[in-house]
Each structure stands twice: as structure tokens, then as C-alpha cells.
Amino acid sequence: MPYGLKLNNGIAGVRASLTTAGTTSGVTTIDIEMNGSSILSTLLTLDYTEKTSLTAATPVVISVADNTLTDNAEMTVNVDVLSGGATEAGLKIQLIGTLI
Q1: Could you give the CA distance from residue 47 to residue 53 in angstroms, rounded to a whole number?
Q2: How many Å apart are CA 14 and CA 59, to the nearest integer?
Q3: pTM for the whole thing?
Q4: Which of 28, 52, 54, 89 has the lowest CB atom count within 10 Å?
């Protein structure tokens, strides 16, 4: 992280999108970690055939303390699960909030 960021709550603060959606059953599941620990208690999901997490059946829940990402933190994105066809491509993550 190049600066501190206070994330907005839920889908207003963390989003994912794909250029190519999964084509068969299942969901794409993504975790975001700060310094080796997840910032999410409910991971980001994209339902198959959909290109955005905004319409996911299960909404994301941010669990990091005060929704705050710290300056100079090591951020990682892990794709934990692919849909049955594993056709997903072009993942983009958005962290939306206020600079601190």
C-alpha cells in the first residue's frame, strides 16, 4: 500500500471484476490479505457467467479493524476457487475508500 486507506463498507469498499467470466457452475472466490492476514470475513465471489462481484449471491464482508489498510502494508490477492470450467481471466480488484 502506498498510503493508508479507510475502506467503505462491504461491496462499496472492495470489488472484483473479470474480463472473461467463468462459464460453468460454481463461483470464483478471491481473498485479499494485508501482511499475510485476510481483510475479509466473507470472501469476494463472482457467480459463474458474471463479470463482477457487485451482483454476487453472497456479498463480501470486510473484517480488517476499522476497515483500515495501513501505509506500507504488503497486500496480496489470492484466487482461492475457480468455477468448474476454470475459464476466468483478467481479474481486477478495486479498493475503494478514503485516504488517511
Answers
A1: 8
A2: 10
A3: 0.93
A4: 89
Q: pLDDT for 58-91, tens place per residue?
A: 999 999 999 999 999 999 999 999 988 889 999 9
Q: Contact, 50 vs 56, CB < 8 A?
A: yes
CB 21 within 8 A of CB 50: yes
Pairwise CA distance, residues 58 & 45, whole Å: 7
Q: Which residue has the cell 489498510?
A: 69
Distances (CA, A) of 47 to 18, 38, 79: 11, 21, 14
C-alpha cell at 44: 469476494
